[in-house]
């Protein structure tokens, strides 16, 4: 356990030479599942924290910026999703946000590690509020195999809320997985995947975008700020089979959703695609934006 003198420090995996630390009030849970080390602790300033294999997955203080953006960018870019697939997301945050879309009729969720779901519910994370939604079908399987098996299932939106490309999530960054997601999309469907950090993983990001550009008609990159993530920032790979503008919402939140959102807005949606100069120089040549823009 990476806790010393009352402080938790992340394990260096994809960001050598730096660590993020949080002061611990109480360790609530620590066990190893069939797939990874799972740690839950209550922190001094960030609320409850979920850690997988030594890396922070969420804190209750700043989870909204990740969950809302990963969910609502593809949903509002698509416009009116009815059938949604969530890959990963065992803490329930993406599920919570999908459940806020009244037009969604079916939610499939594939999380390989049931322990992540169970501890999120057991310790009442603010993200774990929609597991009882009647629209949800939750399975615990290998996501790469699940998506391949699903075939042409007509999903309007597929959201991949994965950990970093090591361990059980490694297969979710391979071109074959993106190809299988393409087959599972409905016409005008949109995918969004966790896309790593511009400050730390730009070569990996451009590799993924280049591979996606061989598969999809539109491929783009957006980002958000998350203080407890490495370098305080994380991005998303967005793609659609058709050539389209993913940076402009095709619909907007209704009044009820607007009341509960803490980070996402149509304006923030569009701004998320405006990249800093150093990243724009690298990504501009590998993304695929609509020729009409």
Describe this structure in words.
- By secondary structure, the chain is α/β, with parallel strands linked by helices.
- The protein folds into two domains: 3-59, Roll (Spermidine Synthase, Chain: A, domain 2); 63-283, Vaccinia Virus protein VP39 (Rossmann fold), CATH 3.40.50.
- 27% of the residues lie in helices and 28% in strands.
- The strands form two sheets. It has a seven-stranded mixed beta sheet with strand order 9-8-7-10-11-13-12, sandwiched between helices.
- A hairpin with a 2-residue loop joins strand 1 and strand 2 (7-9).
- It is globular and about 55 Å long.
- The N and C termini lie far apart (50 Å).
- The model has no long low-confidence stretch (mean pLDDT 93).
- GO terms for molecular function: spermidine synthase activity.
- Keywords: Polyamine biosynthesis, Transferase.
- InterPro entries: PABS, PABS_CS, SAM-dependent_MTases_sf, Spermi_synthase, Spermidine_synt_N, Spermidine_synt_N_sf.
- Residues 5-241 form the PABS domain.
- One of its GO terms (biological process) is spermidine biosynthetic process.
Provide the fold topology.
Layout: E1 3-4, E2 7-9, E3 21-32, E4 37-43, E5 48-52, E6 55-59, H1 63-78, E7 83-88, H2 93-98, E8 106-110, H3 114-122, E9 136-139, H4 143-150, E10 155-161, H5 175-184, E11 185-194, H6 202-213, E12 218-225, E13 233-240, H7 255-260, H8 266-271, H9 277-283
Parallel strand pairs: 7-8, 7-10, 8-9, 10-11
Antiparallel strand pairs: 1-2, 2-3, 3-4, 4-5, 5-6, 11-13, 12-13
Helix pairs in contact: 4-5
